[in-house]
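Apologies for my clumsy wording, but could you write out the amino acids of a protein and the tokens describing how it folds?
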Amino acid sequence: MPVEWCSNEGVPIDDRMPEEKRGSPEPSSTAPGRPPITPSGAANADGWVLPGGPLAFPSTTAHPTGLLQAAFETVPLAIAVVAVPGFEVLLANRRFDEIVDPAARGEAIVGRRLADLTPAAVASEVIALLEQAVATGEATVVDQPLRRPLGTTYWQLSISPVRDEAGAVVALVVAGQETTAQVNARLQAENLAERLRATNDQLTQANLRLEAIIGRLPQGVIVVDREGRIVLVNRAAERLLGRALPVGAKLYSLEVARFKPGGTPYEVHELPLPRSLQGETCYGVEIEVKQPGGRVVNTLCSSAPLYDVAGRIVAAVSIFQDITELRELDRLKDEFLSIASHELKNPLTVLKGYVQILLRGDVDVSSVRERQILTVIDREVNRLSRLINVMLDVSRIQLGGLKLDRQPTDLGALAQKLVDHFQGLSPRHRFVLRVEPDRVEGLWDPVRIEQVLANLVDNAVKYSPKGGSVTVSVRAAGRQVEVAVRDEGVGIPPDEQDHVFQKFYRARSHASRNVAGMGLGLYVCQEIIRAHGGRMWLTSEPGRGSTFSFSLPSLPLDS
């Protein structure tokens, strides 16, 4: 059947042309192998005709054949019309070159079988699709990859049957749109999604392992977010606190009694987790937990902040362990020291008394040698007595039994007494006393304050083996009194300064190794000052000496 090109109104285009131009199409440039579109009744050089009903184009002053040719060539689709059967190409535009086998490009496409033009790897698939469209008579849209040596491109192929007046399929219109970019994007997205799934699975497994490890730890672990809500908790934590700790609950809104050693309740802001949410890392904070049943559990707690990638604090983790048994052993040890000290002190008291009798001359000791021996015995008994007193003080401190006998005390006079005493004992040192104002008075325990001052001055002498100045200063500062003892001795290395007030700590530097002592004096001094409501600190520079200072609240004499 010849093709009849019609306008939108259904009027044959030739009827609207001038008499002299009917049946005489304008010449148009065509690609090799692609015949020009011709009006009704005019076959081209290859002799093809388009089956089917009339096609309508907008009316235009341009020749309709040229318009159709231009539209056919510029449409962003690869289009071909193939005959049925055989699937020979009746018509194809330039874009269709992108679908055919590269080996067939540049040759005449019209008149050749589509199976010969399609890449061999997919020819059978494409022919099967064409045959399916002929058999069903329905349009088909499929995504078809075209695999070539230089790579695979992806196309969405639309195969539409063309029927004659009797309804028989006489041709197929094959239109293809390249979807390589979209398919590659989809494949990349799927690949990324797969990698994300794999990563998520790995993270899930890691979290499960971590939760299993944390769940089996004998130490309690609690993680809270910025608002203090529980994010993670293990059974050990619930066991130590004596109650359930539901995830999502605010930890410090739960009824858990927490006390400092000695029974003073903790304020919430003093506890490790709130401090870590402010950026502080806490180590070894002792907390007494009173469980609902009344049992008291001693715990040692450490905590640290957790940061996100931007460096913001998003959570805090706390780890704490039960040290109740260790505390009981420590109490038993202190009790033993107390008993042992008392037992040692009794025979020493008797021995000291008899030595004093001999030295006073109540008994005739004629030999100089004998008196020297007695003098050495007296000195060593005094030293042993001081050590036992220190041990007793440690036991009293640990058992909460360090008592103060507050009396009106003049710190200036007390310091003067000690300076005079040590000046006679160590002529190599120059002792300096500064008191501002002349009288610094308050309610303190004079025996205990003298003990602290004597220990600090004695240390200044011992750790200044080459002599030098030892300066004692007493200064009233508002409601506080500050006392300082400065020497010009060996000094203390910076890494040891935080430990000198700990029990049994001895300086490890070479210059301090030959100095005798148990490492208890400064610990006892600090506890005596704390019992008065004051504090103790130090500044030191190796090779240039140290300054030990303490402050006391200046209580009025009539309080």
Q: What stands out?
A: The domain at 328-398 is CATH 1.10.287.130 (Helix Hairpins). Residues 536 and 550 are 4 Å apart (CA to CA). The radius of gyration is 51 Å. Confidence is low (pLDDT under 50) at residues 1-61.
